């Protein structure tokens, strides 16, 4: 297995970004989906990134974006990965990859046809985020799914040669239970927050837990 991926998502202020940048996470995420509580304006993110200069890869989260919407964000923010959280099609993924030449990660909601969804995007998606299925909500619920299914998703992605991150309700006090299923990556937002701001102690607890797990299986 590859080195574990840790994505700290939902950065919504310069303070948030300073805290997550100080960690050993591999990826930092920003939500560019309007009318969501973690939405950030691309011009603001651009200024924050110039100030703190993260060494991590930057991930932009979108729901069924137009090419124009992506162009606007990329004008301000040097994204490394585009993450799609909606009902995008294979042809839409291909169009985005052709337009920007960036890796595209696809969110799969845990449900009975989750693995079939991964089959549909085989050879097109450059990675997956598996999140909880909550009616009427695209993500960011802080609700976990049955992690016994994690190895199935992990192995399906591994067959395709791409990473698979687990999202939804991950926090310091349940991290060990999730890592027992050996996911390739984890994606956190609310689990590293206090009063809707990133919390350095929670971030450090997550990173220490990941480090201990890597040491135990290496």
From TrEMBL:
Residues 7-208 form the N-(5'phosphoribosyl) anthranilate isomerase (PRAI) domain. It catalyses: N-(5-phospho-beta-D-ribosyl)anthranilate = 1-(2-carboxyphenylamino)-1-deoxy-D-ribulose 5-phosphate. SUPFAM superfamilies: Ribulose-phoshate binding barrel. It holds the Pfam family PRAI. Its EC number is 5.3.1.24. One of its GO terms (biological process) is L-tryptophan biosynthetic process. Keywords: Amino-acid biosynthesis, Aromatic amino acid biosynthesis, Isomerase, Tryptophan biosynthesis. One of its GO terms (molecular function) is phosphoribosylanthranilate isomerase activity. CDD domains: PRAI. Pathway: Amino-acid biosynthesis; L-tryptophan biosynthesis; L-tryptophan from chorismate: step 3/5. InterPro entries: Aldolase_TIM (IPR013785), PRAI_dom (IPR001240), RibuloseP-bd_barrel (IPR011060), TrpF_fam (IPR044643). PANTHER family: N-(5'-PHOSPHORIBOSYL)ANTHRANILATE ISOMERASE. Belongs to the TrpF family. This is N-(5'-phosphoribosyl)anthranilate isomerase. It comes from Halobacillus dabanensis. The gene is trpF.
């Amino acid at each position: 297995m590859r080195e574990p991926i840790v994505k700290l998502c939902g950065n919504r202020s310069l303070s948030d970004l300073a805290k997550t940048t100080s960690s050993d996470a591999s990826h930092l995420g920003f939500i560019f989906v309007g009318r969501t509580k973690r939405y950030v304006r691309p011009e603001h993110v651009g200024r924050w990134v110039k100030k703190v200069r993260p060494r991590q890869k930057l991930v932009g989260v979108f729901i069924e974006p137009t090419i124009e919407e992506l162009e606007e964000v990329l004008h301000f923010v040097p994204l490394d990965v585009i993450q799609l959280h909606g009902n995008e099609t294979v042809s839409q993924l291909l169009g985005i990859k052709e337009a920007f030449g960036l890796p595209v990660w696809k969110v799969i909601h845990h449900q009975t046809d989750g693995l079939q969804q991964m089959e549909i995007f085989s050879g097109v998606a450059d990675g997956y985020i598996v999140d909880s299925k909550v009616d009427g909500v695209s993500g960011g619920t802080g609700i976990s799914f049955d992690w016994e299914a994690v190895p199935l998703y992990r192995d399906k992605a591994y067959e395709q040669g791409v990473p698979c991150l687990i999202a939804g309700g991950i926090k310091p006090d349940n991290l060990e239970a999730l890592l027992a299923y050996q996911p390739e990556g984890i994606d956190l937002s609310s689990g590293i927050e206090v009063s809707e701001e990133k919390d350095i102690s929670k971030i450090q607890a997550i990173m220490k837990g990941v480090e201990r797990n890597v040491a135990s299986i290496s």
